[in-house]
Specification:
Blueprint lengths: L1 E5 L8 H9 L8 E4 L3 H9 L4 E5 L7
Antiparallel strand pairs: 1-2, 1-3
């Protein structure tokens, strides 16, 4: 599992980067979302890597 936290505002960045942050469930600064570690999620994280912080957490700790 990955804990993704929005640490910079997507305002002023391309529309697709704002949409990627919202698709990950990140709507406000310092808001976190948990996602499984899949190639699709990794691709989304790579696209907005300058806006987020990512932590790897054990799967049992997320629930």
């Amino acid at each position: 599992m990955l804990k993704i936290t929005l640490v910079r505002s997507p305002i002023g960045y391309a529309r697709d980067q704002r949409a990627t942050a919202e698709a990950l469930g990140l709507r406000k600064l310092h808001h976190s979302a948990m996602h499984d570690d899949t190639p699709a999620i990794r691709g989304m994280l790579h696209k907005i890597r300058h806006l987020i912080e990512v932590e790897e957490v054990p799967a049992d700790a997320s629930r």
